[in-house]
């Protein structure tokens, strides 16, 4: 996969959660991960990737998330995932998104403290 060049103010955050025991992701990775590149000023999601086994769910998640913003769009994104994403990783995906949003807010606090 080829990756875009990201702006200098972009941030990478990774959310993680435990998938169901019967999910193949649990067997291969043990954790479910969601990596997001965010605009450091607006929280807009510039790119997204998760460790699904198949490429189609990964592309679907990317399309759901790119262009949205954290934390302001988090409730709407959670609802959209519940309405449209039917896989064993539905709950872990929401948990990863919440975790990533919290990590983004923590990154902003750390940056502000360094100024």
Q: Care to describe what's here?
A:
- This protein has 115 residues and is an alpha+beta fold.
- The protein has one domain: Sufe protein. Chain: A (Alpha-Beta Complex).
- The protein is 45% helix and 19% strand.
- It has a three-stranded antiparallel β-sheet with strand order 1-2-3.
- Strand 2 (32-39) and strand 3 form a beta hairpin.
- Helix 3 runs antiparallel to helix 4.
- 24% of the residues are buried.
- Say how many strands there are: 3
Percent helix among the residues? 40-55%
- CATH architectural label: Alpha-Beta Complex
Task: Tell me the distance between the termini.
Answer: 36 Å
Structural class by secondary-structure content? alpha+beta
Largest sheet: 3 strands, antiparallel
How do the SSEs run, as a string of H and E? EHEEHHH
**Which topology does CATH recognise?**
Sufe protein. Chain: A
Strand proportion = 15-25%
Side by side, the strands of the main sheet go 1-2-3
Overall pLDDT? 90
